[in-house]
Amino acid sequence: MTRERSRLLRAAAVGAVLATAGAGGELGAQSGGYTPAHYYRLVGVGDVAVAPNGAYVAFTVTTVVELENRRHREVWLQPLAGGRPSGDPFRVTAVNQESSGPRWSPDGSLLAFSSSRGDDPNPIWFIRMDRPAGEAFHIEGVDAPPVWSPDGSQIAFVKAPDDDGEEEASAGREGWIAPDAVSRTMDAERFDGRVITSIRYKRDGRLSFQPHYLTQDKRQILVVDAAGGTPRQITRLAFNAGEPVWSEDGRLILFTGDEREDDELDTENTGDIWAVDPRGGAVRRLTSNPGSESAPTVSPDGRSLAFLSTPARGEQTDLLVAELGPDGNFRGEPRNLTSAWDLRPGAPHWTADGSFVLFSAGIEGDSHLFRAADGQPVEQVTRGERRLSSFSFSANGDVMAFTATDAVTPAELYLGSPDGSTEQKVTGFNDDWLSQVTLMPAEELVWSSNDGTEVQGWVVKPVGFTEGGSYPMILKIHGGPHSAYGNTFFPTFHVLSAAGFFVLYTNPRGSSGYGHDFQYATRGEWGIVDREDYLSGVDAALSAYPQIDPGRLGVSGGSYGGFMTNWLTATEPERFHAAVTSRSIANWESWWGTSDAQGLTEYEFFGTPWEERDLYRRLSPISYVENVVAPTLIIHSENDYRTPIGDGEQWFVSLRKLGVPVELVRYPRSSHGLSRTGEPWLLVDRLERIRSWFVHYLIDQRPRSTP
Question: Where do the DSSP E strands lie in 596-649?
Answer without folding.
Answer: 632-637
